[in-house]
Design a protein that fits this description.
The two termini are about 25 Å apart. With about 300 residues, the protein is of the alpha+beta class. About 20% of the residues lie in helices and about 35% in strands. The chain is built from eight helices and 17 strands. Strands 8-9-10-7-1-11 form a six-stranded mixed β-sheet, with helices on one face. The longest helix is centred in the first third of the chain and has 11 residues.
């Protein structure tokens, strides 16, 4: 597991170029995305951004995205698995709108830099560091966004593909350590950061995920809003995505069930052994009756505590 220690007292980098990047231009770009997502896109100003969900008509989550606002376009950053899916979804709703979707993924690179000293190290060699979450600044031909994979202090640097090798060399010369996907995944689960494709899928409703930073409850109509509002008004969900610590060194596989009083009470979505705490950490959908911090569940002979 390469680069794991760097999160504690330094910074690690990971190539996240596989993530989808879609440039949205045209006079109606903000209006369209506002109507297609759960967050308030029309109030974004250049240099700001947000995290949001795309829903279907019955309120299921088709994908998530970071949306960055520029003076003449909006940039969608999404998981590799939803890159084409979300473009096709949006394209169906562009009828008489002045909106153009341009997939710039293959012509750009994206490098995540994350860890306790990520901001300090980037600033040490002249990188402009945005302060607010989802804010972004230009760095020559590059974009530095306050985004992360792991839930720790982090930034995405988006650059022309031709600059990728030079960018990585700059980062390593400044002391940023190369990390691998497994190290980033372990830290992500330690920080209880949900990932679409593992912890969030079309199976779940917005409130079940607990990711309410993706939702603006006072905005106008959007696709799937009726279901979101119905769940909110009734305050009824039967399961919630929760962070668990499990007293075992062996991380259980996704879909593993946990029990309470002999009955199924939770289902794991992602899990990993954490060297930092010496036990397994996990994300799981837990029945609401057993989802309070400190509640104990059973995984075979091991005890899982809700955090």
């Amino acid at each position: 597991m390469k680069g794991y220690e760097a999160f504690t007292d330094g910074a690690a980098w990971l190539d996240v170029s596989i993530r989808g990047r879609v440039k949205v231009t045209g006079e109606d770009r903000a209006r369209l995305l506002h109507a297609m997502t759960t967050n308030h896109i029309q109030q974004l100003t250049p240099g700001s951004g947000c995290y949001t969900f795309f829903l279907n008509a019955v309120g299921r989550i088709l994908g998530d995205a970071n949306i960055l606002c520029f003076p003449d376009y909006l940039l969608l950053d999404t998981e590799a698995e939803t890159r084409n899916k979300l473009q096709q979804h949006l394209d169906k709703f562009i009828i008489a709108d002045d909106v153009t979707l341009e997939d710039i993924t293959d012509g750009t690179a994206a490098i995540a830099v994350e860890g306790s000293r990520a901001a300090e190290i980037l600033e040490s060699f002249g990188v402009p560091v945005p302060i607010a979450d989802y804010a972004h600044l230009d760095w020559g031909t590059r974009i530095v966004g306050r985004l992360n994979v792991t839930g720790s202090t982090g930034f995405f640097i988006i650059a022309p593909l031709a600059e990728k090798a030079a960018l990585i060399a700059q980062l390593e010369a400044a002391g940023v350590v190369a990390g691998d996907a497994e190290a980033f995944r372990v830290v992500r689960i330690e920080h209880a950061k949900a990932r679409y494709g593992e912890d969030i899928t079309e199976r779940y409703l917005v409130q079940e995920t607990g990711q309410l930073q993706a939702v603006n409850f006072s905005k106008g109509c959007y696709l799937g809003q009726e279901i979101v509002e119905r769940v909110r008004s009734r305050a009824q969900i039967h399961r919630m995505l929760k962070h668990l610590e499990i007293d075992t060194n062996d991380a259980p596989a996704p879909a593993t069930k946990l029990s309470f009083d002999g009955k199924d009470a939770a289902e794991i979505t992602s899990a990993a052994y954490s060297p930092r705490i010496g036990k397994t950490v996990a994300l799981a959908y837990v029945k609401t009756d057993q989802a309070k911090p400190g509640d104990a569940l059973q995984l075979g002979e091991a005890i899982a505590i809700v955090r």
